[in-house]
């Protein structure tokens, strides 16, 4: 009956519905406080809702251009995020993780092949019934690399193979620089949903990501022996910096979307259906990964690692890549919406599963 009161989806409806997610996260914090905080269900997830509200109420600063604009500053912040990531990345850990190649192949295949193919299959079945920007955002989510810190933490909680989790999370981040633009280029470059408005350029996107992501990571790895210990000692402070930059990118993206009325006319039902679809997507991928692990007779530890590394998507890489792949595009906030929903729901679902796996193990 609630649909009677909302025929069209406006910005205030979006904020109110996201606030409902905020209530669910608070419940999660009360149920599993320690593990929830470990995997990222703390102030940051709540702040995501807050910056969307701020963008709705005060979009001006996010759309101002200039040498010291928020858009430019967020770009500098992105490079620093990946420099510090490379600084914390130990070459010895990467070499140690190389041996378990079957596990790595499964995790990366699920992350970069199974996820996108599932969304393409749904799009094929759904035909033209999807809103173009939400379709683009959902497919963009499916092409992203896995998370880094939360995957490793949840593998640790569930008593899985931690060295392999670190290896897969790290390799996934680097592969995503090439595979995410490749997938988006195949769809958008081929006249996919929203391609005419976005104007996607595969070669230009890879070059930009190489300079903004790979180059800082490589520089950080080169300096690991000298400053790696210092970076690891200040891991929590660097985490706050990462989160601040992500919030800044989300704020700027939604400022542009609100300023250009990109959410106007989208039915509330579409948003709620999208949220349900993200839950279904997570558990389908989780189930497929579990089936592959059983078929290949993975050990319990390797199976846990495959489940938690293969079924998750990175909000850090998503916000960064959206900034590079869709520069200056007013609908960037709409494109990021499926990722933000999936990010929140995957933390809730995966943390509960990790907790139960730990008790069973």
- CATH class identity: Mainly Alpha
Q: What is the radius of gyration?
A: 20 Å
Number of helices: 18
Instruction: Please tell me what the overall shape is.
Output: globular
Strand content: under 5%
- The whole-number mean of residue pLDDT values reads 79
| Ends distance | 45 Å
The parts where pLDDT drops under 50 for at least 5 residues are 1-9, 28-33, 191-196
Strand-pairing-aware structural class: mainly alpha
Order of helices and strands: HHHHHHHHHHHHHHHHHH
* Main sheet makeup: none
CATH architecture: Up-down Bundle
Whole-number total of structural domains: 1
Oligomer: single chain
Strand element count: 0
What percent of residues adopt helix (DSSP H or I)? over 70%
Instruction: Using the coordinates shown, work out and report the CATH topology.
Output: Na+/H+ antiporter like fold
